[in-house]
Amino acid sequence: METAIGFSSWTSAQWLADREELTRQGSRHRQNAPYQRMQTRDGYLMVSAAGDAIWARCAKALGHPEWCEDRRFATNQARMQNRDALEDAMNAALTTKTTNDWVEVLEAAGVPCGPVYDYAQMFADPQVRHRGLVQYARDPDLGEVPHIRTPVRIGESVRVRFVAPSSPSTMPEIFDRLGVSEADITRRRGIGVL
């Protein structure tokens, strides 16, 4: 919960200052356009063209430098006011190529961007694999069971070692690992906890 609230710093600060509920924007940024998820021919792409200099590089990379002269798109304020038209124009351009094609083009132009993954793509990403974000714990019945490693890397000793218990028959072993005495187990059974 604390992490989620921490990530909402901009919107939380606005609410704390004026107590007005904010309208949901989907993936849109509240103060910059374009700064959101956009559709490509084969998926989605996050485009972060905040500021007029980056916007100019973005428009040129998309093959439409004239957008910078269009009064609807010339400034961030104009782009925010004409967001629907901007999104329509950009989606028409972006759906002509794949996400990977556009990432290559936009990165070469110095426009912050990145692919929007589905889960299969996320877990196949070379950086996810390199960082070892998926760990496996051995289970006698299930074999190697995948788990997500905690994103905070403290060392190799902090890792998933066991699979969650699959039946009550494994409880004595778990209690033993935790150092729970037989008397405590009996007491807990007596009060209906177990």
Protein described:
The chain has 194 residues and is an alpha+beta fold. The protein has two domains: 2-116, formyl-coa transferase, domain 3; 131-190, no CATH class. The chain contains ten helices and five strands; from the N terminus they run ααββααααβααββαα. The protein has helices at residues 2-7, 9-18, 52-61, 76-81, 83-94, 99-108, 119-124, 126-130, 171-178, 182-190; strands at residues 35-39, 44-48, 113-116, 134-139, 143-148. The strands form two sheets. It has a three-stranded antiparallel β-sheet, with helices on one face. It starts with a helix and ends with a helix. The mean pLDDT is 85.
Number of helices: 10
What structural category do the secondary elements indicate?
alpha+beta
Strand content: 5-15%
Mean pLDDT comes to 85
Question: What is the total domain count?
Answer: 2
Under the CATH scheme, which class of the largest domain? Alpha Beta
State the low-pLDDT regions, or none.
Answer: none
Q: First CA to last CA: what distance? A: 29 Å
Report the C-alpha radius of gyration, rounded. 25 Å
Number of strands: 5
Write the element-wise H/E pattern from the N-terminal end onward.
Answer: HHEEHHHHEHHEEHH
Main sheet record: 3 strands, antiparallel
Strand order of the largest sheet: 1-2-3
CATH T-level topology of the largest domain:
formyl-coa transferase, domain 3
Envelope shape: elongated
